[in-house]
Write a structure and sequence with these properties.
The structure is a single chain. The protein is an alpha/beta fold. 42% of the residues lie in helices and 23% in strands. It contains four helices and five strands, in the order βαβαβαβαβ. Strands 2-1-3-4-5 form a five-stranded parallel sheet, sandwiched between helices. α3 packs parallel to α4. It is globular, with a radius of gyration of 12 Å.
Length: 106
């Protein structure tokens, strides 16, 4: 069963996505910030990461760059944001994200 890491500082987003994806049969890992995401990524070895851009400790773009620079971007990453721009989406895909979702996610 595929593991999906959901990284978002908004508890409502984490709960909504985890409920939907669990119902579809996925194993879910949750992280509320970049620090927790680093730990979960290393321990849980997710098959996919849903990564929020705006977080309080480290933003998602910076975390994506870190993973790419360290050779840790060996899983698909989908960026999520409710305040993102086209430029941010383009930057994320240049770094290695496979897609970009706008919040709220329907």
């Amino acid at each position: 069963m595929a593991k999906i890491l959901i990284v978002d500082d908004e508890v409502g987003i984490r709960e909504l996505l985890s409920e939907i994806l669990r119902d579809e049969g996925y194993d879910i890992l949750l992280a509320e910030n970049a620090g927790a995401a680093r730990a979960m990524r290393n321990a849980g070895r997710p098959d996919l990461v849903l990564l929020d851009i705006w977080m309080p400790d480290t933003d998602g773009i910076t975390l994506l760059k870190e993973w790419a620079a360290n050779g840790q971007l060996n899983m698909p990453v989908v960026m999520m944001s409710g305040h993102g721009t086209i430029d941010t989406a383009v930057e994320a895909t240049r770094i290695g994200a496979i897609d970009y979702l706008e919040k709220p996610i329907a």
